[in-house]
Amino acid sequence: xxxxxxxxxxxxxxxxxxxxxxxxxxxxxxxxxxxxxxxxxxxxxxxxxxxxxxxxxxxxxxxxxxxxxxxxxxxxxxxxxxxxxxxxxxxxxxxxxxxxxxxxxxxxxxxxxxxxxxxxxxxxxxxxxxxxxxxxxxxxxxxxxxxxxxxxxxxxxxxxxxxxxxxxxxxxxxxxxxxxxxxxxxxxxxxxxxxxxxxxxxxxxxxxxxxxxxxxxxxxxxxxxxxxxxxxxxxxxxxxxxxxxxxxxxxxxxxxxxxxxxxxxxxxxxxxxxxxxxxxxxxxxxxxxxxxxxxxxxxxxxxxxxxxxxxxxxxxxxxxxxxxxxxxxxxxxxxxxxxxxxxxxxxxxxxxxxxxxxxxxxxxxxxxxxxxxxxxxxxxxxxxxxxxxxxxxxxxxxxxxxxxxxxxxxxxxxxxxxxxxxxxxxxxxxxxxxxxxxxxxxxxxx
Length: 446
Fold this sequence. Notes:
This protein has 446 residues and is an alpha/beta fold. The protein is built from 16 helices and 12 strands.
């Protein structure tokens, strides 16, 4: 078939949300999250399997209740720059906050990764989920939703403007004419907006793919709108097949409403496959994984993250869920609102809400290789995703998927059998953005 599935890899290290006990697994090195060789091996294995990208998440606030991986991990762009020198084709997508960075600095860092990797960089734009981050940057309070998303939109616009500082032919490097730079192809930005004032130009040329690929993970109305306006890749929440279909259709519809080609935004759902020799063995292992991570202390900490790392320890576990709706606005508003609404409607206690926050929910991608491949094919045909962002507990689990499921997808014509491009944009089927100044000159000369 003409449409092909895109696959990305999201390494867990010693265990993130939903994988709190992973560090106890004897197959996991206790320093995996800060071991660059762990990430290089993961990236090379994914590249060998022809994956599109390696995806690195990040946050900048912790307390002692956070998952093990969050407590001690490498900064994404530093990590990905190291991985870039040990890979050739796989995309390198790093998370960075538009709330707690400056556009010039971050644009330069991502452009540098883009050059180091030969055009394989991607930026996952986040507005920062953890309210406590503000205190690490000299602010008393986390910015509200409207401000954060308004800032994010302007931030991306500024970054893209800076990435267009040089036109593609700006450096003739002509010794005979004593001309290294054509000054007519260098452009200041001179941006003055609501949140930023940036003169430019950026002191780095465009890469082989023009600009880094913009990713986003929009769930709220503001997040979905931002994604439809600027994103080229989206990390979607997943859920049931019907929920994934609704999200997919909504984002594609919003994208078209902004005058963009819906094919130029690739939606990745989260996938945590469990592959085993038989369906029964895989289902049994999935349940075991859940039980390994299921305890009240962990569930309360997980619940608290939706409310700005709120400590529920001061509340009576068997009393009605506390009235803390005011904390949702500057935390994970969408998830927090859903928690509060359900607690009120069903008159749940704090203990019951904490338990329900970590209810056992079967992944659709569990079973023998043939079963998992069948499900992937069915979901793809149903219009739920363009790609899957895959997370595996161990390197052995990644190998089981690569050796068992990927060949079946290839045999069915659903996944590539070789890389068709050297850049992330090329492998995702995204266009190289024309430099805005080159485009304006061409229009003026028509």
